Amino acid sequence: MLVYLLRRLAVALCVCVAVSALSFGLMFVVGDPAVAIAGAGGSARDAEAIRHAYGFDRPYVVQYLGWVGHVLRGDFGQSIYFNMPVTEIVRARLPVTAILGGVSFTLALVVAVPLGIVAARKPGGLTDRLALLLAVTGQAVPSFWLGLMAIVVFGVWHGLVPTSGADTWQGYILPVVVLAYSAMPAMMRITRSGMIEVLGTDYIRSAEAKGLPTWQVIVGHALRNAILPLVSLAALQLGVLLSGSIVIESVFALNGLGRLAWESLLRADLPVVQAVILILSLVYVVLTTAADLVNAWLDPRIRGVR
Amino acid sequence: MAEEVIRPALWRRGLRNVALMSGGSVVVLMVLVAVLAPLLAPHDPYSQDLTRRLLPPFWIEGTDPTHLLGTDHLGRDYLSRLIYGARISLGVGFGVVLVSGLIGISLGLVAGYFGGLADMGISFIITTRLSLPIVLVALAAVAFAGASLATLITVLGLLLWDRFAVVSRAAAQSLRSRDFIKGLRAIGAGQVRILFLELLPNMRAALIVVMTLEVANVILLEAALSFLGLGVRAPTPSWGLMISEGRDNILFDPWLTALPGAALCVLVLAVNLLGDGLRDITGGRLK
Amino acid sequence: MTLLDLQDLHVAIPTERGLLRAVRGVDLRLAAGETLCLVGESGCGKSLTAMTLMGLGPKTAQTRSGRFTLLGQEMAGRGRAAWKTLRGRGLSMIFQDPMTSLNPTLTVGRQLTEGVIHTEGLTRRAAEARAIALLERVGIARAGQRLGQYPHQFSGGQRQRLMIAMALMSEPKFLIADEPTTALDVTIQAQILSLLAGLQRDLGLGLLLITHDLGVVAAIADRVAVMYAGRIVEEGSASRIFRRPAHPYTAGLMAAIPVPGRTPRGTPLPAIPGRVPGLIEPIAGCAFCERCARGETLCAARPPSDVALPDGRVECHFPAVEIVQ
């Protein structure tokens, strides 16, 4: 287990380095940051002064290491637009995205797993067909459009929920449901196909032969094995949800990280964009690493028990 | 040789597969609409007429029979714009998959076939790519490279190769150990020959399925980027962009938003059904 | 006490090409402490019969029977759910493939004990004590430590020992073993079989052993039932069936066993010509007719009726004469 853990953490660390280098490099790939800071009215001399002041004239590696050093201390630099520390701005916006992502992920999981199990118990049955229909449509509907339509129907026509903002918890209802609906299909399908596969195995038959009650066979034996691919996928989906929140936040006018990143992009406020990309990537790395560790805990063969 | 034996059965299974047939026929229909857009569209999708703005579609009172689905905020014929929109969606979808497929399949083949250091390196690249928030990175890239159709296709193509790489890597790994590939290596067949003439045709089924599902994925992503104003640029009739334009009038003319979204749903649903159907009949499984 | 009294069991499975009548009127009886071997070639319906006895047949299967008394309960016409009161409570089973029949993600200890913890309400400690005793009985050393290990840490032969121990945890009266040695090496097969035979004797189990290996049958059976194309074509004492088979199919099976010392080297073993009939179309006469040396017009036209034997019965128009008399 220890060897597995260390190897997995080493890979995660390498990915972190690569991702941070990429988000740092973004600043230079897309153009001269000094010119961007100087703004449209800035002269070449202004840019030169800024270049020197910000240290953009140093070698890339030195700049990168300096940046990483600051990031490790929680300092993402200064926002060009807000003229205040990026860390502060991000900290103010993070909770909205975290709530949105976390709640819709939980909702998606709570719907997907039982639905997948029930569907798998009778493939081709009524529940299975309904579940598949729900999944197929969920994968086809663009979430931002569904969000707009939901606003029209529930917010404008029926006035059941606020149409924008998250001043009250009701403001979260529509975005959470819409986001969950887009994340649910993949998880439902993988639960279903995993359960169908596992329910047909010999060891499930053995468990039944022992006289175990159905729920114990399904939860204690089948789900435990069928859930392995779901754990990996769920981590991935949570990452996708956070990334997808950019669109949803702009539709519902929620002041989260995604909307911040989008607005900062339009304002060419690169330090903020950099920070959000890095944060989302790191969250993803942490999640997938956690998923691998959960799988290792669930399956002794992965953690290399000999 | 085995293929000749399987083929007739495959066709028959295909014809009996409801998802495949319904999805496939809608996709074919959409492709025809896109190709024949100049013949089908009743008006020029770009010609504005501010005196005839926001005419409602045929099911709402006050409609104009020459504009079956009404006109948008600039008086452009909505049906024509929707028809031309199919071109953008399908064009971006296929274009991106062409680029991303090329990158992903090459990487996956090399990683899966050669293994060892090449595999470690490429797997690391895949993991790194997967950890990037795709919407945000695509937005950033498009924002700074300038929004245009060509940029969009290049950027998405350079970003969305991960699924191709994962699938072809796994397929190449399992094929590598098969006897006929071992035999070819034993008689000294060239590596390039084995890779492209033997491995690639043998994973065709799995790759076609991935390709179909990726087209659907790309279409949705293009719509999202265009919706955020960082994809296809106005006045090009992209469905995503049309949703965003319709948003300003969503309170009084929600159909402006509803129609392009519905078109997106139908197209993506059809492409997904086609992909699922293909997977069912070929048995090409995806993880 | 009679553990099993089954008459006229039919099991049909819907397939794409039609209804597969896999079991077509099987009669079986098993007394306590008796070993009955059900033999036949692959696809004759013997495994399906065993699964139906366990209530674990395919969910789509259509089952009907005459009298069906299992451990004193009448099971005829009852659904799969009815078996919940029997499995792990007197009725137990050992499966074919020990490599896939154990859950790879749970410890062996958990898999051995969970059944009795549920059915008998034993404490974990009591269940583990029983598991350790059984593991030692089936020949697994350091049983106490090995309870914490996972299936992949055991060899194939050891896993089948685990499966046997698992089946015996509930102290069953009736044990079904479905080809328990086919997945194992030949050398290990013999060990597992002698273990099974020893346990049957010591615990007084009623054992229904399903196999296509006649060597196995000769070693441990009290009685033998020969199955062909979904029916039991001959049943009788093991000693008689091996010396004087009454049904031409049984005779063919016996002739195909090489006897060391008696079968000359290099002579081909006699095989039964022809193929098993498909079971989707109804069979008019005797299912074995086309492959039978004694087959006549009558055989193709009318199904044979039971002929009573001193030690059992045979289903043939022209059984070997000397036994019937």
From TrEMBL, chain A:
Tree of life domain: Bacteria
Gene3D superfamilies associated with the record: MetI-like
GO CC annotation: plasma membrane
Localization in the cell: Cell membrane
Residue intervals passing through the bilayer: 94-118, 130-157, 169-187, 226-252, 272-298
Annotated ranges, domain ABC transmembrane type-1: 94-291
GO MF, one example: dipeptide transmembrane transporter activity
Topology relative to the membrane: Multi-pass membrane protein
Matching InterPro entries: BPD_transp_1_N, MetI-like, MetI-like_sf
Keyword tags: Cell membrane, Membrane, Transmembrane, Transmembrane helix, Transport
Family as reported in the entry's similarity comment: Belongs to the binding-protein-dependent transport system permease family.
Name listed for the protein in its UniProt record: ABC transporter permease
Species annotation: Paenirhodobacter ferrireducens
TrEMBL record, chain B:
Chief localisation class: membrane
Subcellular location: Cell membrane
Domain of life: Bacteria
BP GO annotations: transmembrane transport
Keywords carried by this UniProt record: Cell membrane, Membrane, Transmembrane, Transmembrane helix, Transport
Coiled coil: none
SUPFAM superfamilies registered for this protein in UniProt: MetI-like (SSF161098)
UniProt key word Transmembrane: yes
Keyword check for NAD: no
Family label: Belongs to the binding-protein-dependent transport system permease family.
Name of the protein: ABC transporter permease
Source species of the chain: Paenirhodobacter ferrireducens
Automatic annotation (TrEMBL), chain C:
GO molecular function terms attached to this record: ATP binding; ATP hydrolysis activity
Highest taxon of source: Bacteria
Cellular component, GO annotation: plasma membrane
InterPro entries found in the cross-reference section: AAA+_ATPase, ABC_Ni/Peptide_Import, ABC_transporter-like_ATP-bd, ABC_transporter-like_CS, Oligopep_ABC_C, P-loop_NTPase
Pfam families, A to Z: ABC_tran (PF00005), oligo_HPY (PF08352)
UniProt topology in membrane: Peripheral membrane protein
Alphabetized PROSITE patterns for the sequence: ABC_TRANSPORTER_1, ABC_TRANSPORTER_2
Keywords: ATP-binding, Cell membrane, Membrane, Nucleotide-binding, Transport
CDD domains, per database record: ABC_NikE_OppD_transporters
Stretches assigned to the ABC transporter domain: 4-254
GO biological process: peptide transport; transmembrane transport
Localization, UniProt: Cell inner membrane
Family: Belongs to the ABC transporter superfamily.
Protein name: ABC transporter ATP-binding protein
Organism: Paenirhodobacter ferrireducens
